[in-house]
Write a structure and sequence with these properties.
The complex is a heterodimer.
Chain A: H1 3-22, H2 29-52, H3 60-81, H4 86-105, H5 109-136, H6 145-165, H7 173-195
Helix pairs in contact in A: 1-2, 1-7, 2-3, 3-4, 3-5, 3-6, 4-5, 5-6, 6-7
Chain B: H1 2-15, H2 21-37, H3 45-69, H4 71-76, H5 92-113, H6 115-136, H7 144-163, H8 168-191, H9 193-199, H10 204-208, H11 210-235, H12 239-261, H13 265-290
Classes of the chains: A mainly alpha, B mainly alpha.
């Protein structure tokens, strides 16, 4: 791992740590818990990559753990802005996560990829569209749309890694790893920037 | 002026490698965090500087005496044979004089600040040099317990200075350090197994094997994290910092489990680094929470 990658991962871990500590004033404990899980996974993932190197991405547990980022952030956004659908969305999130774990551990590879794509996709779309729509409706300051940008970036990162894991990489492994620390930093920065507007 | 500057540089080049600066600074940070955790007037710059100075000198003194006594072991190990004493850069009597001088200075300074604080700092030095290094290190692998206890003294001393007495939070912080230190020592004893074997130092891997050592590291890391969380709650740290300590603990637990279930050199060293980062982060958070 290059020194620059290490620096980018360290900044990412510090930014995500800042968000965990800062929390968001006035939110329900459900939303705070979801955001803590999402940013907490970013903190741990950055530190693990920093300490153990990119090889850590080869672990099957990484797919499962990294799924927690979009799922928990999406659930946090729903808890914060569209509470009426919190229970069904929460059930979808929990069931989706369990399905990802189950298919990763025992299911056929194709089913695992489809499950991941569906659950990840719904969460990714939620993170991308919901903040932009909320900001567009002026329910929050316009800067909150940055969370949507973060959602787009993490979706991109998730896609690159998922297809790499599925054996059909969109880019070469070397190229993905070259852009990954920067992409993770941009994603985290966009999330943190967006949440300062709430 | 340039002459004195050059003399200072020479002195630094000669003596600085004797104090294991990274370890000393981490222990110094724990002492400052312990002091600040008492939420006393931390911006009393005079006291903060005195704590910093007395702890830095005492810990350095303890390390120098440790290096002086272990120079024969260091000479037999590839990892440490470059140190100033085995490498012949400093003679043993010179190192002993330097170690005793700064130890007496540091303890004297600590006692002048506060008797209880000074007594705990002295206990740390005594446990490290006499009990751990001179008495037990060459006899039993369990000597690391005393290494851990001595490592926990700076944080206890700092908190006792802030409060004026020893409380359960200070003991929990000491416990956290006590259980963090084996992570450090045992990881090195596995990584440099042949070195320790050649030097004839009894270690956990030599006595009980690698798997037992790995499980010991995993368990002690988790206990260190639990003690740290208990102390953080007791201090009344802000919820945000508690959340972050919780998050970091999950990572530590994950690595501890990974090391026990699927052991490897990489995960082993990763846990050691992560545990150090965890302890550093927790101490920084205690300081930030007060500031």
């Amino acid at each position: 791992m290059k020194p620059l990658d290490r620096i980018l991962l360290l900044i990412t871990a510090l930014l995500a740590s800042y968000q965990v500590v800062q929390g968001i004033a006035g939110l329900s404990s459900m939303a705070i818990a979801c955001y803590t899980i999402g940013f907490g996974v970013i903190v741990i993932a950055s530190l693990m990559m920093l300490i153990l190197g990119f090889e850590v991405l080869d672990s099957p547990l990484v797919v499962i753990a990294s799924t927690l980022i979009p799922l928990s952030l999406a659930l946090g956004l729903v808890a914060q802005f569209i509470r009426p659908i919190l229970i069904p969305y929460g059930i979808f999130t929990v069931m989706g996560f369990l399905a990802i774990v189950a298919t990763r551990l025992v299911g056929p590879k194709k089913l695992a990829v489809i499950t991941l794509a569906v659950v990840h996709g719904v969460a990714g779309l939620t993170i991308f569209f919901l903040p932009i729509v909320i900001a567009f409706q002026a329910k929050t300051p316009g800067g909150f749309a940055w969370v949507g940008i973060g959602g787009m970036l993490i979706g991109l990162g998730g896609l690159l890694l998922s297809f790499l894991k599925a054996g059909k990489p969109l880019l070469s492994r070397g190229r993905i790893l070259a852009v990954f620390p920067g992409l993770l930093l941009l994603t985290t920065a966009a999330f943190v920037a967006g949440f300062t507007f709430v | 002026m340039p002459k004195s500057y050059s003399a200072l540089r020479t002195l630094k080049a000669k003596y600085w490698p004797l104090i294991k600066s990274l370890q000393t600074f981490l222990l110094l940070l724990t002492g400052l965090a312990g002091y600040m955790s008492a939420r006393c007037p931390v911006f009393n710059i005079g006291t903060v500087l005195s704590v910093t100075g007395s702890l830095f000198i005492s810990i350095s003194g303890s390390t120098v005496l440790n290096m002086w006594y272990d120079r024969d072991i260091d000479a037999r190990m590839n990892r440490t044979c470059w140190r100033p004493l085995p490498a012949g850069i400093i003679s043993p009597p010179e190192a002993l004089r330097f170690g005793l001088l700064i130890s007496i200075l540091g303890i004297g300074w600590a006692l002048a600040i506060d008797l209880l604080y000074g007594a705990i700092v002295f206990a740390g030095l005594f446990f490290d040099v006499v009990i751990y290094t001179i008495w037990l290190k060459r006899r039993t692998c369990w000597s690391i317990v005393w290494g851990g206890i001595s490592g926990g003294m700076p944080v206890l001393a700092g908190r006792a200075l802030g409060l004026g007495y020893i409380d359960w939070i200070g003991l929990a912080l000491t416990f956290a350090i006590l259980f963090w230190i084996p992570t450090h020592i045992l990881t090195f004893s596995m990584r440099y197994f042949d070195d320790y074997k050649t030097a004839g130092v009894p270690t956990f891997p030599l006595t009980y094997g690698f798997q037992f050592t790995r499980v010991t590291i995993a368990i002690s890391s988790v206990i260190a994290a639990v003690a740290m969380i208990a102390a953080a709650v007791g201090i009344g740290m802000d919820w945000g910092y508690l959340r972050l300590i919780g998050v970091l603990s999950v990572g530590l637990l994950g690595l501890a489990i990974a090391m026990s279930v699927r052991p490897s050199e990489r995960v082993n060293f990763g846990l050691f680094k992560y545990a150090s980062l965890f302890m550093l982060g927790a101490m920084v958070m205690i300081v930030l929470d007060v500031i």
